[in-house]
Design goal:
Elements: H1 29-44, H2 50-57, H3 61-68, H4 71-98, H5 104-108, H6 114-126, H7 129-152, H8 161-182, H9 191-212, H10 219-226, H11 234-237
Helix pairs in contact: 1-2, 1-4, 1-6, 4-7, 6-7, 6-9, 7-8
């Protein structure tokens, strides 16, 4: 694991490690560059140099530019790939839950996806328009797979599926960011330590809240519903197609 000594980011240094996303030899050069960039961005942030990414992927900086044209476009492809990966993992988890399979093998293997966690953290910390777009896409995707979970019978229906998905996504991301900010690992580049710390501190209370609830009665909800308008129906909440 790389240290925070300042050596990171220079071409020719040892590439960061973190599991999950690897520059495998059997991938295309473009895919190796993308995966190397995801891991480098996750460990160091989006200021990581193209030369360092190229070195991690075993290619020249010129080849990175040949495939992507700019670091901005490379990052956009990393965003797209990770969003698809998160979407796939969530749908796999829901499908396994619907089939009655234990999720503990996923829990035990969570550290393999540490680069995803690191990349999402860096996106939140970055605060750029591209980062906001990335988080917005995460929220939109969450609406889809929570609805799938409701249809599969593993998630309780909501009066407003979109609002609930947004709340859960932003709450989990905010919790992760605060966890790392308030109790950072000794090596800020140790993605595995970030995941281990979050799982240790958060999974029990999270699972209790999700499965057992928090309040002993629904009185507060009933009182609230008396004074607010009904949430939009699913048809009303759907986006209106653009003309033409």
């Amino acid at each position: 694991m790389r240290s925070a000594s300042g050596a990171e980011g220079r071409a020719g240094t040892t590439p960061p490690s973190g599991g999950g996303v690897r520059a495998d030899a059997d991938l295309t050069a473009r895919a190796r560059i993308r995966d190397a960039a995801i891991l480098r961005f996750a460990v160091e942030g989006f200021g990581a140099s193209v030369r360092a990414i190229a070195s991690d992927a075993g290619v020249s900086a010129g080849l990175v530019m040949h495939h992507f044209g700019s670091k901005h476009k490379l990052r956009a492809e990393c965003d797209e790939h990770l969003l698809a990966t998160i979407r796939r993992l969530k749908r796999e988890n829901l499908a396994e839950a619907a089939a009655g399979q234990s999720f503990f093998h996923k829990f035990a293997a969570a550290e393999e996806n540490a680069p995803i966690v690191g990349y999402v953290l860096r996106s939140m910390q970055d605060g750029s328009p591209l980062a906001r777009e990335f988080i917005d896409h995460m929220v939109d995707d969450a609406v889809g797979y929570t609805r799938d979970g409701v249809a599969a019978g593993v998630i309780v229906p909501s009066r407003d599926e979109a609002a609930r998905a947004r709340y859960l996504t932003l709450s989990s991301l905010g919790s992760l960011l605060l966890e790392v900010t308030l109790d950072p690992p000794s090596d800020s580049h140790d993605l595995g330590a970030i995941v281990r710390g979050f799982l240790t501190n958060s999974y029990l209370p999270m699972l209790e809240l999700f499965t057992e609830g928090f309040l002993t009665s629904r009185r507060m909800l009933d009182e609230y519903l008396m004074y607010v308008p009904d949430p939009p129906s699913q048809d009303e909440a759907a986006p209106v197609p653009a003309p033409g």
